[in-house]
Specification:
heterodimer, B: 891 residues, Jelly Rolls, Alpha-Beta Plaits, six-stranded antiparallel beta sheet
């Protein structure tokens, strides 16, 4: 929460997102060529990543190493299609969840002080919502620009219905 | 240097996820992180490495036996000494071990390769020799040695030598320690795909069972009509079914009698006046008619997992059941089914799907036709890939026996797909209520399904849902629901409603799954799987295989596939399938009758004296065999069963096995064994006599493997056909598998140190924060870290909240580092690709799984573009001093 309050505020009421900069330099929100810094290429309820966190894929062969993950249904073809000279792929994983109804979605991205910040919306079932009772391992696959940053930070907010 | 920092928000989410999942309690707080490390196939470790010698042992002098295919890491050293204490690394000790000796089965032309790796002690060398152990004193058959420039050496058995067990010695070449990897060449270390082939079922040549269209409109004209179709009428079997013979005019073609018969039947099916035509399967195969045991997934462990059916005792139920649930309608209230109505569902479900409905309202609907409609198709998620949860659940109930994929518990029952869950597997109680009401009334006041499966949850108590369930119960419906996955005793609805069987989940050992709910409202347990455990010791986490759909590489749209899931969602349909089997035996069974049987111990196996219950498994783990027997009006008392159901023989497992044949049930009728035959030639199998002779209710039969008749890495399969007579002649079929090797339980990569390291390196060094030490058990390692409680003594395995890389490996040279060349290494989720794991206070992360191996992704020829790790020395251990493995005073 420290980093959250230091650099940005994330307001989720009414599904609106407000990012207020407070850092020492102006956030960069697109590449020098005018392309988005990050774009979501896929998401899955069963990525096979049972721990919460993130994985950085820097080459096609990195993608290939996901093949053996137990219980993975995340399709790898869209990940392999990424031009790894220009973009890398970040898998933002929620870890193992007890039911269906969870998802991760990219909201926006910015580079501030050499740090690539990915703002994601995490949806989880509200109390009392009817959900499937099979375990899931949700994640989002996000293509990010390969240059212009040295740190990566993922910040999320819950956005229930 | 790339620095990956905190995933702040994800940690927040972790802390807040409990309430929405159908339960309210958090996971156990004595575990911060736990999981299992699997070992790559064929992996072995030298028995006297520096790590094992440190634990008070002298070097091994007897040969260590290895299989024909292996990869082994070893250690030799000409003398004892200490590694230099530099760069912040401790001055740990290494031990003398001048030679390692291995016994290896070899064939002429086979090569054993070795790659040597110097240690922190400095450049070193070794040599290797191949010799005949029966020819003591003779010069080596082959030898090789490393040098300053050559680290990869090998020995080869010449082509004029005989096949047999040979001795390979690895000898230290200097005073300093050296690590090595020894492996057989020209063989793949990944086990060959099993090549199981089952013959088609036997049928009477020249015969068919035929039903004609509009028979009633042609009274007296049946014979003429059949004659015109090339059929010689044999006899009527009732209800429009005729057993007919192929007329001579039809049998003048080429090919075998069986082939001609099938061609004739195909011609019959193309006739407009023929409603159906099927082969007349021979009586003995009708007794052992095709069951899920014959299906590809069941028959080939490489394709899926079917441990859950063995645990459920389903194979016996399939023998006992007269029709595998035929005529019973099972409503699956779920996410719908993959495919499209009316007959374009998943290939393995298509034959059994009846009319259904879609009750998903606008808010949750994503099928392009918002709101309720008559199409219960599961469109998948609108974004990203989908689970196809309802397809998986339905397959467990009623996937067909059709030589494709797997099969369901009640594989002849009819599915009533009712879609109540939409985007992401979520829905509302209002939609569920509408669906329950629809199932309750087909428009004439009758129920549309006799069994209703509810693999969903998360609701509070809602009176209107209870009322709907009560109404259906009064009309004979039986409701089954998943107990929920919150590892909680808080009642989860609909499972906890009255008149609903609440089903908890168990792993492959029949133990409550780590995630499963429990409590006094749980009625019974069934297999739901647990990926974090290998309860049945098959080398894999326990997951449930069933029908699914996924986007295959190169495709843009999903295809029908098979998938692995875990959850009480998977347990409930096992119970629903068994109830369908029971209802087909006795259609009068209702909730009250079944519940009485359950509480009398007639439907379950229980860990305590029957009948009894506990909060974890309720009245016990469902036993499909007992359940079908209990439901039967006229129970079969002379049914012979086999234990094990499938006899599996292996050069690295059981070389022989005793099959127990027992007449099933509480009041068995004695039977006599008439004959024992093999379905197909199997020179690799020896079959002993059935004992005792004469009439009885229990027999034994010894089976043995003849390894020299088996091809390495190829699984062979046949079946024992045991003909016996009790009240009537019957045949029992026992699949028999012979294979080599099945080495999971024998895999060993040496003692492993599991580390949580700071993902931000200091220079080139990753700082180790927490450490757990684990030994191999049944071919895998189980590890656990505990939360940092902030009080002394502070254990190495205590971990404070934060972000970490999870890594593990062996320290065979005892230099205080793991994961360098010559040692085993695992990284979560896969080696070479580390994920930052976020550990949060009060939240346990369980079920982590990764694989350890001597190989590194950087040396794979298949991935030349993998980035190297320049300057990476390995991960540092916190303590390797004897007696201090578990605690530390300073963090």
């Amino acid at each position: 929460m420290t980093l959250l309050s230091r650099c940005l505020s994330l307001t989720l009421a009414g599904a609106s997102l407000m990012v207020a900069g407070c850092a020492t330099s102006q956030p960069q929100v697109e590449t020098d060529e005018g392309a988005p810094l990050a774009r979501q290429i896929s998401q899955s309820a069963n990525c096979g990543l049972t721990a919460p966190g993130h994985v950085l894929l820097k080459s096609v062969s990195d993608v290939g190493r996901l093949e053996g993950l137990q219980g993975r249904t995340l399709p790898l073809a869209p990940l392999r299609a990424v031009d790894f000279d220009r973009e890398h792929v970040v898998l933002a994983a929620l870890g193992q969840k007890p039911t269906g109804g969870y998802s991760v979605t990219l909201v926006s991205s910015a580079i501030t002080d050499d740090t690539l910040e990915l703002f994601v919306r995490v949806r989880e079932p509200e109390p009392g919502m009817l959900v499937t009772q099979a375990l899931t391992t949700p994640c989002a696959a996000i293509a990010v620009t390969a240059s212009g940053w040295s740190d990566i930070r993922i910040t999320s907010g819950q956005n229930n219905r | 240097m790339l620095r990956k920092s905190l995933v702040v928000g994800l940690a927040v989410v972790m802390a807040g996820c409990g309430g929405g999942s159908g339960g309210g309690e958090s996971a156990p707080v004595d575990v911060a992180l736990s999981g299992v490390i699997d070992i790559e196939a064929g992996t072995r470790v030298d028995v006297d490495t520096a790590d094992s010698l440190m634990l008070s042992s002298t070097p091994e002098t007897d040969p260590q036996s290895l299989p024909q295919e292996f990869i082994l890491a070893g250690y030799v050293s000409g003398s004892s000494g200490f590694y230099p204490g530099d760069s912040g690394l401790p001055s740990t000790e290494y031990f003398a071990d001048t030679e390692d000796i291995f016994s290896i089965p070899m064939v002429p032309g086979q090569t054993v390769s070795l790659q040597a790796f110097s240690t922190r002690a400095g450049q070193s060398s070794l040599s290797m020799q191949l010799s005949d152990p029966d020819d003591i004193g003779a010069p080596p058959i082959d030898s090789d040695a490393t040098s300053d420039t050559v680290s990869r050496i090998s020995v080869t058995l010449p082509g004029d030598e005989t096949e047999g067990i040979y001795r390979v010695q690895v000898l230290a070449g200097s005073s300093r320690p050296v690590l090595y990897i020894l492996t057989t060449s020209a063989v793949s270390l990944s086990a060959s795909k099993a090549a199981f082939e089952w013959p088609a079922h036997k049928f009477a040549e020249g015969e068919a069972l035929v039903t004609l269209e509009d028979e009633q409109s042609f009274p007296g004209a049946i014979s003429a009509k059949m004659s015109a179709l090339g059929m010689a009428k044999a006899r009527g079997l009732g209800q429009g079914l005729w057993q007919v013979r192929m007329s001579e005019s039809q049998s003048q073609g080429q090919g075998s009698g069986a082939g001609q018969t099938l061609a004739w039947i195909e011609r019959l099916r193309r006739q407009a006046s023929v409603k159906s035509a099927v082969p007349n399967y021979l009586a003995e195969t009708q007794v052992t008619s095709p069951t899920p045991i014959n299906e590809p997934i069941y028959a080939d462990p490489a394709l899926g997992q079917q441990w859950h059916y063995e645990l459920l005792n389903a194979p016996i139920a399939w023998q006992l059941s007269s029709d595998a649930g035929a005529g019973v309608r099972v409503a699956v209230l779920d996410t719908g089914l993959f495919g499209q109505p009316p007959e374009n569902w998943h290939l393995d479900l298509n034959a059994n799907v009846g009319d259904g409905y879609d009750f998903v309202s606008d808010e949750y609907d994503n099928d392009g036709d918002p709101g309720p409609d008559s199409n219960p198709s599961d469109p998948g998620n609108s974004v990203g890939s989908s689970v196809y949860h309802g397809t998986h659940v339905a397959g467990t109930v009623s996937a067909a026996v059709n030589d494709t994929g797997g099969a369901g518990v009640a594989f002849n029952s009819t599915l009533v797909p009712v879609r109540v869950l939409g985007e992401g597997g979520t829905g509302s109680s209002a939609d569920l209520l509408a669906a329950l009401n629809w199932v309750n009334d087909d428009g004439t006041g009758k129920i549309r399904a006799q069994v209703i499966n509810l693999s969903l949850g998360g609701l509070p108590y809602i009176q209107s849902l209870q009322d709907a369930i009560n109404l259906g119960t009064g009309r004979g419906a039986i409701y089954v629901a998943a107990a929920g996955n919150a590892a909680s005793s808080t009642p989860s609805y609909p499972a906890a409603f009255a008149n609903v069987f609440a089903v908890s989940a168990v792993d492959g050992a029949g133990v409550l799954s780590s995630y499963s709910n429990f409590g006094d409202w749980v009625d019974l347990a069934a297999p739901g799987g647990d990926a974090s455990r290998d309860g049945n010791a098959d080398g894999r986490g326990d997951l449930v295989s069933s029908t699914s759909a996924s986007v295959l590489d190169g495709d843009s749209a999903p295809s029908a596939t098979y998938g692995l899931l875990q959850g009480t969602s998977m347990a409930a349909p096992h119970a629903s399938g068994v109830l369908a089997l029971m209802k087909s035996e006795n259609g009068a069974l209702d909730y009250a009758a079944v519940n009485a049987m359950l509480q009398a111990g007639k439907l379950t196996v229980s860990s305590c004296d029957n009948p009894c219950r506990n909060d974890e498994l309720g009245w016990g783990l469902m036993d499909a065999g007992k359940s079908v027997l209990a439901a039967s009006d006229t129970p079969v008392t002379d049914l012979l069963t086999a234990s094990p159901v499938i006899a599996s023989l292996s050069t690295e497992g059981a070389l022989s096995i005793t099959v127990v044949l027992e007449v099933y049930g509480e009041s068995p009728t004695p039977v006599s064994i008439d004959s024992v035959q093999l379905e197909s030639s199997a020179p690799w199998l020896s079959v002993g006599p059935v004992e005792p002779t004469g009439s009885g209710t229990r027999f034994t039969l010894d089976l043995g493997l003849i390894p020299e008749e088996l091809e390495t890495g190829v699984s062979e399969r046949t079946a024992l056909q045991i003909s016996y007579t009790g009240n009537e002649p019957r045949t029992l079929e026992i699949p028999v598998i012979g294979q080599q090797p099945a080495d999971q339980a024998l895999r060993n990569a040496g003692r492993h140190f599991v580390l949580l390291v700071d993902p931000v390196p200091e220079g080139d060094i990753f700082t180790t924060v927490s450490q757990a030490t684990v030994e191999v058990v049944n071919g895998q390692y189980q590890f656990s870290f505990r939360p940092d409680d902030g009080v002394e003594p502070r254990f190495l395995s205590e971990v404070p909240p934060g972000d970490y890389f999870l890594v593990a490996g062996s320290d065979l040279d005892n230099d205080g580092l793991i994961c360098h060349a010559g040692e085993a290494c695992a990284e979560y989720p896969v080696a070479g690709l580390r994920e930052e794991i976020t550990i949060t206070a009060g939240e346990a992360i369980q079920g982590i799984r990764m694989t350890t191996s001597y190989s590194r992704p950087t040396i794979s020829a298949q991935s030349p573009d993998v980035l190297p790790r320049p300057g990476f020395e390995g991960y540092r251990l916190l303590s390797t001093e004897p007696g201090q493995e578990n605690t530390k005073s300073i963090r």
